[in-house]
Amino acid sequence: MKNKLPLAIALLVTTSTTFAENTPWQERDRLSGDWGGARTALADSGIETFAYYTGIFASNVDGGNESDEAYAGGLFFGAKFDLEKKFGWDDTEFAIAGIDRHGRSIDAAVGGQYSVMQVVGGQTTFLYNVTLEKQFMDDQLSLKFGRMSATDDFCGSPFFSYSMNNAVNGQIRAALFDGVMTSYPFAVWGARAKYQINETTYAQIGTFQLSESMWDPKNHGTDFAIRGSDGLSVFTQLNWNPTFNDRPAHFFVGMNNAFFDMDRFDSDQDREEFVRFYANADYQVYSESPDSDNGLTLFATIGYTSHDDVAIVPVQSTFGANYRGLFPGRENDSTLFFATYGGFSDVYSKVESEAGRSEADYEMVIELAHRFQLSPASYFQPDLQYIVKPGGTGDIDNALVLGFQFGGSF
Hints:
mainly beta, 16-stranded antiparallel β-barrel, Porin, signal, porin activity, 17 strands, OprB_Porin, 410 residues, Carbohydrate porin
C-alpha cells in the first residue's frame, strides 16, 4: 500500500493529458475530458460514465495511544444508462457502480470512537450500486430498487462530505454505530420511494435488507442471498428546502426503524426492534452578493435514540461552518469548521465499569480545514483534527491529527 499515494497523485496529474483536449484541465468538469468527443457521443446515446477518486494522508502527531501515519484511498466508478434513449422506457435509469478501497487507518493509534480517515472501512473491491429508477407523474414521484444502501438517500447533506473525519462525513455517524443502517460501500437489497410534495418539500421512505454478513468485505458486494434470519431497516424522511431573505436553507428530519436481532450490552437477550431519530438544518447566513453561492453557511445535526442498551453512541450532535470564497482570488475554495459531540451509552459505560474498565462519557472531534478547489473536477484540502477524550474514558490523551485529503472526478 505504500506506493498507492504517489500512484494516486500521478493519476490526478496525468489523466488530464491522456486525451487530446482543447479545454485546459483547470476548466474541465472531468479531468479526463471528453475523450476526443467519445464521452459526449456516449451521453447522447444514453450512457453516462463516472469515476471519483479520494485520497487521504493522516498523521497522529500528538496524544492518542501512539504516533502513526498512513494513507488510504477510494475509487468510486460506474455508469448510468438512460433507458428512455436506449429502449424507449420513459423516465427510467439503470445504474451500476463499483468501489475500490485501499490503504489503512491510524484509528488504533488515536484510540477514538470516530475514524479520522473517512475512506477507511472495507478496504477491498466491491460491487456497489445495481439499481433501476423510474420517475412518474412528471418527476413528482421516483421509485428506485436494487442493490444500494440507506446512505445513498437518507441522513446526509452535501456539507457533510467536506469533513475528513467520519463523525459526519456521508451521514450522522452515530446512526451507523447502531449496526442497522446500511452504508456505502456495503450494498444490500433495498427500495426507495420519493414524493415531491411541492417546490420546496419532499418526503421519502426506504426499506433495506439487514443481514449478519452485510459488513463482510470478503463478499465483495456479491452476496445477493435473502435469508430467513435477515431483518429490515425502514427509513422515513421529510425534507424542506426554503429560502429566507433570498438565501437557501435545507432542513430534514427522519427516523430509522429496524427489525433485527441486536446484541444488548447488559443482557444475553437480543433487542428485536430499534428506533433512531435524526435531524439536520443548514442556512446560508451571509451571502457576498444576491443569489451568490459565496458566503457563510452554518449547519447543525442531531441523532438520538433511547435504546442505549444496544446503541454505543445514543446521542450525537455536530455543528459546522462552510465559508465559500473567504479569501480574495479563491472564490471557489471552502474554509471549513466542524465540531462533533458523541455521548456514550450509560448502559455500555456501566457494563464497562462492572468489568473493571473505565467508564465512557463522551468524545469530541474538532476539525479545521481549507479546501483548495484546483478545478471544477479536483481539490486539495489540508486538515487539522483535535480529538477530545478519545474513546470517551479520559484514559487516552487528547490527540492532534494533521493531514490532507484530495479528490478528482474523471
